[in-house]
Structure formats: C-alpha cells, structure tokens
UniProtKB/TrEMBL annotation:
The gene is grpE. Keywords: Chaperone, Cytoplasm, Stress response. It is found in: Cytoplasm. Homodimer. Participates actively in the response to hyperosmotic and heat shock by preventing the aggregation of stress-denatured proteins, in association with DnaK and GrpE. It is the nucleotide exchange factor for DnaK and may function as a thermosensor. Unfolded proteins bind initially to DnaJ; upon interaction with the DnaJ-bound protein, DnaK hydrolyzes its bound ATP, resulting in the formation of a stable complex. GrpE releases ADP from DnaK; ATP binding to DnaK triggers the release of the substrate protein, thus completing the reaction cycle. Residues 1-75 are annotated as: Disordered. Residues 54-64 have a biased composition (Low complexity). Belongs to the GrpE family. This is Protein GrpE. PANTHER family: GRPE PROTEIN, GRPE PROTEIN HOMOLOG, MITOCHONDRIAL. The lineage of its organism: Bacteria, Bacillati, Actinomycetota, Actinomycetes, Micrococcales. Pfam families: GrpE. Its main location: cytoplasm.
Length: 211
C-alpha cells in the first residue's frame, strides 16, 4: 500500500482530500471559505434598492400633493367666475337704471316744454272751436305743431263720456244729465295734457249726475 492511499473498511482505497480545493456543499456548489453568504438585509441595503425607495417616496408625495393643487386652482377659478358674474349683473343693473333715468329726464324736459306751450295750445283749441282755424296758413301751422308734439309723446286729456278719473281729471262742477252715465265726463271745460306717464295738467271737466 502506498503512502498516498489509506485503507478504510474492507480495504478500499480512499483518496486524500486536496487542501487547496474548496469544500462543496451538498448541492454540489462550491463555497468560499472565510466569506459569509449574502443576507436579505444586505440585498435591500444596496444603493439600487435605496434609489427605488426614494423614487417610490417621491411618487407618493406627488400623488398626495397633486389633488390639493388641483382643488386650489378650481376654487380660484370659481371665485373669478363669481366675480365676473357679479360684475355682469352690476353692469346690467346700471344700464337699466341709466335707461330709466334717460327716459325720465326726457319726460321732464318735454313736460317743461309743454308747460311753456300750454297757452298756445289753449288758444289753438279755442280758435278751432270757434271755427277760426278751418282753413288757411295758420290752421296748417297749428296742425303741424300739434302733430309734432304728438310724435314727442304728448297726449290730450279730457273726453266726453270717459269715466271720471281724479288722477287726470279735475271736477269743476256736477251736471245733471241723461245723456251721459253718472260719474262720467259730461263736458270738457279745458283740455289736459300728459307726456309719457307724467300728467302735465289735469283736464277741467263737468261730471254727470242723476237729473
């Protein structure tokens, strides 16, 4: 028997282990002597894992802050929209108020002009009742004047047979008559005028009563 072989058991030779060869585990893989194996903590602690965790944290933070930014922008947009609606409503109200004031001013100016022309209108009416303005240049001038004032909104008040209205009529006397119903205008003593809704002068009338 040589020195390089040892006998064991029934005389079978067993090769000696080479000290320079690494030991093998049961699965046949060589394991380095003196170097411990990698653990789960070592794998999770690598720089690559730390970068992934940082990316996940940043993504989670952006997802949490995004809805808050969108809500703030939506609230700001709604506030600006409400401001625009209020401004529009104020402008419409201002426009309507201005139009009413213009109409009222026009009525006041026209009423002042009619008040100044009342004596002329009374003379024209008296001359027409007397038959002095049936024809001729003065009749044409009087007609043009009345037509012009009518286009400006002038309306004559006082008509026989109309219901007595204290807002536009001034009752001077009561006249017993069967020709007109009671509490109706039986005679117009002086015509009245109004322009728009403003009464420039009430009509002087006689009111019918039971005879």
């Amino acid at each position: 028997m040589s020195d390089s072989e040892n006998t064991k058991g029934h005389g079978q030779s067993v090769p000696e282990e080479d000290p320079e060869q690494p030991a093998q585990n049961p699965t046949g893989e060589a394991q380095s002597q003196g170097e411990p194996g990698l653990t789960v903590d070592d794998i999770l602690g690598t720089p690559q894992s730390e970068g992934v965790e940082a990316a996940d944290a940043a993504s989670s933070t952006s997802e949490d802050t995004a809805p808050e930014g969108e809500n703030a922008a939506e609230r700001l947009a709604n506030e600006r929209l409400d401001d625009l609606r209020r401004l529009q409503a104020e402008f419409v109200n201002f426009k309507n108020r201005t139009n009413r004031e213009k109409e009222q001013l026009r009525d006041f100016v026209s009423a002042d002009m009619i008040t100044a022309l009342l004596p002329v209108l009374d003379d024209i009416e008296a001359a027409r009742k007397a038959g002095d303005l049936t024809d001729g240049p003065f009749a044409a001038i009087a007609t043009k004047l009345e037509e012009t004032l009518t286009r400006q909104g002038l309306e004559r008040l006082g008509e026989v047979g109309a219901v007595f209205d204290p807002n536009v009529h001034e009752a001077v006397l009561q006249q017993p008559t069967d020709e007109v119903e009671p509490d109706h205008v039986s005679m117009v003593l002086r015509s009245g005028f109004k322009i728009g809704d403003r009464v420039v002068r009430a009509a002087q009338v006689a009111v019918a009563a039971q005879p």
